[in-house]
Each structure stands twice: as C-alpha cells, then as structure tokens.
Amino acid sequence: MKTYKEEHKAASEFDSRTEYLENELKIMKPRRFKLNLPGRDFRFEWEDLVPALAGTLGIIAMYSSVMMAWAEGLTNAWDHITLGKEFAIEVSRVEMIIPAFLFVILASGFFNPRANLAGNHGPMIPLIASIALAGAHPLALAILIGIFGLLLSFFKGGSRLVNLTSKGVAGGLLIFLGFSGALSQIRTIQNWSMGLSSSTVEIGTMGYLGLIILAFTVILYSYLARIDKRWLAIPACAISALAIALIGGASFDLQFTTEMGLPNLNPVYWWGNTEEGWMLGLPKAQHFIASLPFAILAVAMWSPDFLGHRIFQEMNYPKKSEKVLMDVDDTMTMCSIRQMVGTAVGGGNITSSWGTYLIPAAIAKRPIPAGAILLGIMVMAVAILGSPMDVAVWPPVRSIALLVGVFLPMIEAGVQMIKQSACAQAAGVCIFMAMVTNPVLAWALAMFLDNNGLIGDRDRAKRLSRVDRLVIPLSILAICVAAVLAVGMFKGSYGIDAFL
C-alpha cells in the first residue's frame, strides 16, 4: 500500500481547489498513537488557517464564559469566596497554555490525528451555577468526568452509541441545539446593544447597532454559503461585527485590561491554599458526592455532541475518506485525560469535542492535524499576549463567532438529515422532548423509541440486537433521568426538587 507522501499530487494537477482538497482526504493514512509528521503524513494548507482562527475565537469565548460562570457561582455559594473577571481571565489563560500544548498540538496534531481536539462542553455552561450551589468542586468534577469518560471509551461505548443514534434523532438534536443556541446569541447581542451607554449616549439609544450587526451577518453568511465559502464565516463575520460596532460608536464599551505575560502556572497556587486561586483547597469526600450526578450528566452528553461533529465531517468529506474521520472513542479518551490534567494544573473548563474547530474544518474539507497545530500555537499566543482576549470576549465578536461557526451550521446539518418522512418523525419527537425536558433526556428517549420501531423507521428494530434495542437505550435513559432528577434540573420548570 502506497504511503500518503507517495500518493500526494500537487494542486496544479487538479482542475479545481476542491478536487485537490478532496484527494488529500482520500490518500491520508493517519497513524494512531504514533508520530505523524508534516510532509510525510499530512500537509499544511492555507485553508487550515480558517478553522484554526475560528477555533481560537470560539474557545476564548467559551473558556471565558465557563470561568465567569464558576466565579459567579462559587461567590454565591461560599461566604469566604469572592471571584471576579480578573480571576476568570487568568484561569482561562492557564487552560489555553498547558492543555493547548499537550492535547491540541501534541495529541491531535502529531500523535493521533483522528482524535478531535478536546475543547469546551457548551451545554454544561448554564448548569455551572447549579453545580457550584450544590457544593461541587471543579477538581472533583474533573476527576469524575475523566474516569467515566475513560471507562466509556475503553469499552467502545462512544462509537456504539453513535451507531445506535439514527439520522432522524441526530437531526432533531442538531436542530434543537442549533436553534436554541442561535436564539441565545441573538439575545446576547440585543441586550448588549440596548445596554450601551456613555457620557454622550443614553442607555438604549444604540439598540439599532445590534440589529445592523445581525442583519449584515445574515447577508454575509448567506453570500458565503452561496459561493460555497462557508468555512470563512467565523473570521469574516466576526471581523465585520467588530468593525461595525467600532464604526457605530461602541468603542467606549471595549476595554483592554489584560496585560501581556504568563498566568500563574503553579497548581499549588490554584488548589493548595484556600486564600489563593480558587480559594477552595483540595476536594474532600462530600465534594465528590455533590459532583457525581453532574459528571454522569456531562459524560452522557458527550455522545450526541461527538456524533454531531462526526456527522459534519461525513456530510462534507468525499467518499473513501473514512480514515480521516474523527474517531469517537479516541476523542473520548483524549477529552477524559485532558479534563483531569487541565483542571489539575489550575483550570476549570468542562471538556468536550471542539466544535468551533471541527465544523469549520469539515466545511473547508481539511483533516484534523495541520489546523490543530496552528490552532494550538494561536491559542497559546493569545493567552500570552493577553489583550486579544479582551477583543474576543467582546459581545458582538464572541456572539457572532458562535452564531455562524456553530449554531447556524448545526441547524443546516440537522435539516439535511431529515429529508425522509420517517427521519422527520423521529426528529420531531426529539425536538419536542428537548423542549419539554432537555437535550440529554430527549436524545435518550428518542433513541429508545426509534430503535424499537415506535417512531421513525419501523424496520430499524429488526436490524438491531436485543442489547442494542433494549438494554443499552434503557440503561442510558435510566442514567440520564437519575442524574437530571438528582441535580434538580426540573426544579425551575416543574417544581421537582433535587434528590441530593
């Protein structure tokens, strides 16, 4: 069998750039847990800059959101703790240096290009306040998530769950997550523009600025999709939003406060003294007990998250490129190890597959390794420079990057997956259940119903074993229900108190 280097052809030998990129995907042969070298196993292309930039913008926004949520939650939960923006930024910078080098550049870039980058678990961000109020500890939560994730990946549970999720259920899940996420970012931009005020501008009088940014984003995104250049959406739309906001007079709202340099990289500073860092000290037994249901919930949500990212690759990559598709179990392994290591050195991120990188990479028809290396370098550079973080977390830039880089593509992918009536039925049930409960329970229940022929394709149950039809789906459903009830996720909606 010929190697990648032997099969590689120059771009000039193809009729179009797309044909060249698709051929690259077909001839690559990534080495699993072995050293992959540029030139021998993969190449850098200028298209790799787009997902790298998109992933950098996305992860800065997500990390800062996670750390601010932890800061606010712990401040409210503990009398002796007062954490603010400075703490959140410093912890974000820790996450962007050590884990980026170990698990982005080295792991996904050189040693296992089929493992997607370990990024952020977006759906868990709204739960962080509840996690803190429940008495959980970030380090205890990270250890439990890591252990559960490694167990699932060791027994190949991730890939099996992917195979048990039909296109209808997956499509419905993508549509719901994309739609709810898009609405959230739209509201963020609206609230930001309505809240602008200065010595010369009254609060609310600049509300039109958010509408202009959103309108221009829709036009630009539609145009890029029309000319088949959607992979440019994040940098193009984010930079446009930044320019419009500055030209519109919102520059007084953009403040540069983060100085150049390295954050404190000593784990003892963050966890060893209750008067410094997180101000929590090392976790005790009660912290692990309080963290347990949230850890189960986080890992249960990995499979649908990973599934959505892999589906994006399958939809944009050509046939015969299976060797470069994201491996769900390997990605789960990397996420599990990264979760424990990243938090142990002082971080607080809740990890999952890096969607703001892989989705643009799939659209650009690029494999994982080259862009991962570039992204890791960019992320580390931004963390050291400091001031670019202030721009990336500015609401118009952050929200537009997430809107066009993650949520709109998720909606499009979901719609494309439910062309058949059977798939549409399963998707409809999944969306309805997500609205009534949450995406995790919706996925678990819809998968059980679909695999038993109660919704969707009636013949699907005939092709599955009893274990795949009943044992696994019912076990997942029971675990998800127990975790959701234990942490009190239905208290606000249905008045059901937490069991713990």
UniProtKB/TrEMBL annotation:
Q: Which UniProt keywords apply?
A: Membrane, Transmembrane, Transmembrane helix
Q: Which organism is it from?
A: Polaribacter reichenbachii
- Does Transmembrane helix count among this protein's keywords? yes
Q: Where are the transmembrane segments?
A: 49-70, 131-155, 167-186, 206-224, 231-252, 288-307, 341-362, 368-387, 399-418, 424-449, 470-490
Origin organism lineage: Bacteria, Pseudomonadati, Bacteroidota, Flavobacteriia, Flavobacteriales
**What InterPro entries does UniProt report for this protein, alphabetically?**
DUF3360
The protein here is known as: DUF3360 domain-containing protein
One Pfam family of this protein, by short name?
DUF3360
Report whether Membrane shows up as a keyword of the record. yes
